[in-house]
Amino acid sequence: MQISKKHMKMLDIIVKISIDSASRAFSKAIKHGALIELARTELVDVSEITEEMNNDFREMAGAMLQLNGALKGKLLFMIPFEGALVLQDYYMCSPQGTSTEFNEYTEATVQEIGNILASSIGNSLASDFGSTVLPTPPQVICDFAGTIFSSLILEEGIVHDKILLIEAKFKIYNTEIDCYFFLLLDIETMEESLSKLEQSTKGT
Amino acid sequence: MLPVVDKNIITVGVGDLKIDKSPKTIKTSLGSCMGVVLYDNKNKIGGMLHLMLAKCNDRAGKLSKYADTGIPLLVDLMVNKTNANKKMLTAKIFGGAKMFNINSELFDIGKSNAAETKTILEKMNIRIVASKTGGTKGYQISLDTETGVVRCRVFGGQAEEY
């Protein structure tokens, strides 16, 4: 699996704009500031990245969905259980500490946040690439961090030893809560989209 | 994610394998993947394979991703690189959960991973002394290379020793 340096650079800029847009949509949804602590676009080794993830034995809730259309991929929003409860209170405009146990409302909150992030990222990518990106409804998974992440990369990981992964970490302002966001792009459709974008900018 | 500070803990990534000896602990998280733990009780050498699929079917890439190529590779490395005694090796297997809610036997990767793992180990005359497979939730396993004990926790449950 190869991706040119030029395309990687282009993708990095596009992704940073998308993540920034997603971060603003996220902040708006929870009515609280979310700061991007890390945003990176890398071609990573499946075993190495999952080794890193498997170090984290925390229990988390994740919203996973697929991006279809001209640009294909998968998206995962993941948050530790205790963070999801805080998120739920923000989202429902309840005083902090109202939500004390993970239930269907917490699950719905995580699902909705996944939806909001996917729509924001999808719109941003579609706008930059001049193509359509259609997200599927999010599936909520509650499990260990490593297990949820493995579910995201399983299909790609079987076919390839390396995957193109976009990772962002959000910190909710004034809290100790970290949220993790991953975007796994299909190299083939992404290369096509980047080539088209490259051609169209040459003409301008 | 969270960095590991203990140098005695080794983590295995998806489709990978790790081998070490006492006093190290080898750990991983599993979903539909299988964790194959081999242990030589005499030399206190342990190996852990995190396989993704049952059969390689001539796919390119790492052999440790598949049961039919990964298990022989793990045995080979343990015997030839770390001087484990093949006759002393015993196996413990974990994982193979049904992580995706699809009503088809064909898509139950976890089940076929578990079945193939048992077949390969049997063919290689390696006795399975403990196993916990199936379900719909993830597993966390860690092997103590000093004792050979595997601590296994299924999501939502208590840790058990095997």
List keywords for this structure.
heterodimer; A: 204 residues; alpha+beta; Chemotaxis protein chec; 7-stranded antiparallel beta sheet; 50% helix; globular; B: 162 residues; 60s Ribosomal Protein L30, Chain: A; 5-stranded mixed beta sheet; 2 helices; 35% strand
Structural class from helices and strands of chain B?
alpha+beta
Total domain units of chain A: 1
Percent of residues of chain B in helical segments? 10-25%
Give the C-level CATH assignment of chain B.
Alpha Beta
Instruction: Tell me the CATH topology of chain A.
Output: Chemotaxis protein chec
Distance between the termini of chain B: 28 Å
Total of DSSP H or I helical runs spanning 4+ residues of chain B: 2
Question: What is the H/E string of chain A?
Answer: HEHEEHHEEHEEH
Name the shape of chain B in a single word: globular
Largest interface: A-B, 32 and 32 residues
Q: Give the low-pLDDT segments of chain A.
A: none
| Portion in strands of chain B | 25-35%
Query: Roughly what is the average pLDDT of chain A, rounded to an integer?
Result: 88
| Strand fraction of chain A | 25-35%
- What radius of gyration of chain B results from the CA coordinates? 15 Å
Count structural domains of chain B.
1
Q: Output the number of helix runs of chain A.
A: 6
* Fourth-tier CATH superfamily name of chain A: CheC-like
**How would you spell out the order of helices and strands of chain B?**
EEEEEHEHEEEE
The CA-CA distance between the termini of chain A, in Å, is: 30 Å
How is this structure best described in words?
The complex is a heterodimer of chains A (204) and B (162). In chain A, helix 1 packs across helix 4 and helix 2 (46-54) runs antiparallel to helix 5 (145-159). In chain A, a hairpin with a 5-residue loop joins strand 6 and strand 7 (178-185). In chain A, strands 1, 2, 3, 4, 5, 6 and 7 form a 7-stranded antiparallel β-sheet that branches. Chain A has 6 helices and 7 strands, in the order H-E-H-E-E-H-H-E-E-H-E-E-H. Chain A is globular. Chain A has helices at residues 5-30, 46-54, 81-91, 104-129, 145-159, 187-202, and strands at residues 34-45, 59-69, 73-80, 133-135, 139-144, 162-172, 178-185. Chain A has 204 residues and is of the alpha+beta class. The model of chain A has no long low-confidence stretch (mean pLDDT 88). Chain A has a single domain (5-202), classed as Chemotaxis protein chec. Chain A is 50% helix and 29% strand. The longest helix of chain A is centred in the first third of the chain and has 26 residues, at 5-30. Chain B is α+β, with helices and mostly antiparallel strands. Chain B has a single domain (9-161), classed as 60s Ribosomal Protein L30, Chain: A. Chain B has helices spanning 67-81, 109-123; strands at residues 9-11, 17-21, 25-30, 34-40, 45-51, 89-95, 127-133, 139-144, 150-154, 159-161. Chain B has a 5-stranded mixed β-sheet, with no helix packed on it. In chain B, helix 1 crosses helix 2 (109-123). The longest helix of chain B has 15 residues, at 67-81. The radius of gyration of chain B is 15 Å and the shape is globular. Chain A binds chain B through residues 46-59, 141-148, 150-151, 153-154, 157-161, 180, and chain B through 1-4, 11-16, 27-33, 52-53, 59, 61-62, 64-65, 99-100, 109, 137-140, 155.
